Write the structure tokens for this entry.
Amino acid sequence: MKLNSVRLPHHNGSAELETANFRLPEKVIISMSQHGGVPCKPVVDIGAEVKTGQLIGDCEAAISAPIHSSVTGTVTAKTNLINRFGRVHEALVIETVPNQVLCEDLKPPVINSREDFISAVRQSGAVGLGGAGFPTHIKFAYDRKTITIDTLVINGAECEPYITSDYRAFMEDGEKVIDGIRQVMKYLEIGNAVIGIESDKPKAIAKMKVLTASDSNIKVIGLPSAYPQGAEKVLIHNTVGRVVKEGDLPSSVGCIVMNCSTAAFISDYLKTGIPLIKRRVTVDGSIVNKPRNYFIPIGTRVSEILSAADIRVQPDRGLLGGPMMGTSFYDIDTPISKTTNAVLLFSDTKERMQTACIKCGRCVRACSMGLMPTELEHAYDARDAELLKKLHINLCMDCGACSYVCPAKRNIAEKNQLAKAFVREKAAEKH
């Protein structure tokens, strides 16, 4: 069965440039909500002197991941931020000092068992670096009595325009990607791994095939260059031929999905003990003269990235993430988080002039989940929660393909997100 998809322009001007280190920011604003699940609480107070890699936020909830300082400096304030879901959460403001030093507590973890490995991954602060941000250790901590995982699926599709951070991970850190995969397979006792890379990245495919030539249980698969190839359910279907049913997790079909950059980070952490305090970020867009990837400290403000980028004019719109699933930032001092794989800058952005639906069916043909976006829109407008469930609204991945192909420029993808939230609210009312 071939899933529906759309073709997008690539705009990957940063693809063949080596990643550069970003300058030390004047200050960072580090959110306590950088992962799926429960936000952390600060464990340091205003006035505290912190070192690079020091724990500054944690939470006892199961689905959470600790947060560490990305710089050495002084905590000067606590503030509130609004995340991409519209929720308010705490953040720490840290002003940097010239002399950056690593926290003396950092050291490679000692691992003798599966439990040690999962604990180490939690302490690293690892989350999905492809953008979803789900705490990585939760994926690894499945109950082996009821769940059998036979395949580790590595997401290297990177199917959105402009973004090349995962591609550079393959090209610059391919050995780390493979080492991270091997560590996960070893400690979780997973027999096989597949690495899915879109076919428009032949250099990455070739390199990873060379690096895995001696590993018969790690396969590199070239995938069609189509969107949303990197979506979890689509990736599983196109690499191992399995279908994840509505409401189920990849573990239900014997798979764990992990981003290639996350794999590289795990390899680094096991060797150095340095937690997730920086990440590779693509800086690009229609007004950026020299697109490039940078290693940027978590919490760096967009304003500092903007001042360092070689831009032609001032932007009228900026995105954290890709043009399909990223979010616009309304404040130039918005900080990047663990889930920020790109900062995209644009000007002269055209407004979408919306008209009535012309019933062309393009959105239906574009949906990789086989949904009917027009019917979902009607059901949401009627506030019919039962009909939304019958139309399988929860299968929507928020990929935006329906809005992209719509000649009437309707905000269908936005409506779907609102519809899912509406269904959750109605379900909560019943309980």
